[in-house]
Structures are given as structure tokens and as C-alpha cells.
Amino acid sequence: MTQKQLNEILDQFDIPASITPYGNGHINDTYLVTTPMYIMQRINTNIFKSPDELMDNIENVTAFLREKIVAAGGNPDRETLTVIPTKDGKKYYRLDDQNVFRVYLFVVDTKSIENSKTPEDLFEAGVGFGHFQMLLADFPVEKLYETIKDFHHTPKRIEALKTAIAENKAGRADSVQDEIKFALDQVEWAGSVVAGLEDGSIPVRVTHNDTKINNILFDQETGKAVCVIDLDTVMPGSMLYDFGDALRMGGSTAAEDETDLDKVWFDKECFEAFAKGYLSEMKDSLNEKEISLMPLSVKLMTYECGIRFLTDYLNGDTYFKIHREHHNLDRCRNQFKLVADITAKEAELAKIIKSCI
Hints:
By secondary structure, the chain is α+β, with helices and mostly antiparallel strands. The chain is 46% helix and 13% strand. The protein has 12 helices and 11 strands.
């Protein structure tokens, strides 16, 4: 969009300001509004079909968090997202079906971390995501919409992969037979969490569902976790989704699209650091089955992301943003390398969880 169009959209929020692209998310287009400081995002309506439901979830969760933060003597403008309404009081502004915008208050004096993380960073991220879930433990989960249906329903992700293999829309299936075989060889254990949610042995909780370390803001000076961001996929689910997905990237020694697979392996020290932070907030809330599946959850979320990248590659790269040819295939291979390494270390990871508990 042109600068003029963006400024006209900002005017709908009664914010006269300069604006520049910001961040590197896979899904939404994000802009920094610099005077004063806000974040404006164009919601990807190809993925989030109902902006009303999406923003209802975010408003309900952040309002609930604000009450908890105020009661604890904290600063809600800093410790959770603040939705800025339009001039006519709406949660977002719709220019047309493809251009739907929202604005948040910018969380000042914070930083985000991409791939240059330390065990200390991982510990703080664990505290941050654990605290987020702990504060939402008594949120009425039935109030939340499922913004992306079956987002972490791994068996259905497997079925989507099988469909992509059969349809072979981009004509790429023959060139990725090794990846297809690896993906289908994991099917036996991949439904563990879904089965637990369905039979009630794993409780349904409010979950973030995209707990990458760059979805938490850290204090610029102290490095302490401040605010969990990117709440588009806040939905009912299992804490195992959040724990596993955080370590899918947090425990990897490389970026998720690193093509030199010799650089890609799973770091047990980072796993232990995050687990200690997370469990410092959540261990008293978890049941035995959740605790027992924490090591497997990391493998599960890494596998699930890998098959999503492979599915998108077979379908012609229609979901994730790509920045080069075969980008989704590179991501897939990277994730599958991690799955293999996590599998080899699973017993050691279980011992780490036991020691943290």
C-alpha cells in the first residue's frame, strides 16, 4: 500500500503520524507508527477469516489480563497488549475484504529476540509464557473462538499432508519422497495430545499457540520478560502446544530455515532453561499426564510445523510467506532434522523435567 493510503487508514484511529514497515512475521503485515508510538497491523484475512471473532478473543483476553495485572500492582499498558479503537469505537478498520487493520499501543523500552538467544533468555521466556498461562488459568475458555479451526489438530494436519501428496498441485511430490516417508513414519505417536484432549485426561486451557521467543517482549535493560504478543491464535487447547512450540525454535541451534543441516540440532541446555522458567509459574497447575508428555510435546510441535511446511510446499506455497524458491522445503527439512534429534534425546529431556518438578 502507498504511504498516503496507510496514513488515511491511521486517520480512522485518530492517529496523525508517520508510519514504516516493522518486524518480520510470516502472516500479518506490521507497521510502526512513530509519533506517537503505536503498532498497526493488516490482518491476513486469507488465514483469519473472521476479524470479528479474532478481535473479540484478543479484547476478552487482554481485558482479563489487565484486571489481573492491576490487582497485582503491575502496569497493564506494558504487561499486556492494548487495543486502540477506531474513531467510531470499533476494534478494527475494514478498508475492504483484503485490507483489515488494527492498532495496538507500542510497548516501550522493550526488545524482541530472534535467533541469537541464550539460556538466560530462554529461562525468562519460560517465565513469561508460563505467567501468561497462569494468569489465564481461570479465564472462561468457552468464551474463546477457534480463530483457525483445528490449528494444532495433528491428525488432521497429517490428513492435509496426505491430500497434498495425492493432489500434487505444484508437481513437486516426486522430488520430496524422502521427506514424505519421514513424515508418514511418525503417524503412530502424533495424535497423543489430541487423544488426551478428547478423552479428558489432558485439560483444555487458554493457549497462545504460537509461542516463539520473538512473540514475547523483554525489558530493554533487565532482560526480564515483560509482555506476550501476537495473540491471533489464542484459543482453547493444551499447554503442551505452547510448551512444545516454544522449544521448537527456542531449543534449536539454528534458524528454522537454515539450509546447512549440520548446524541444526536440539540444545538440551536451552530446553532445561525454558522448562525451569515455565515450570516456576505452572508446575502446581499441571496434571501428571501433562508433565509426562512435555518432552514429547517438543517433538510433536516440531513435527507438526515440519509437515505444515511440507504441505504448503506441495500445494505451491500458498500459506506461509516465502523469500526464495524452495523456502518451505528448506524449513521442512530443518524441522525434520530437529525431530530426529529430539527423538534421540527424549529420555534425557524427561529426566530434566523430573528434576525441574
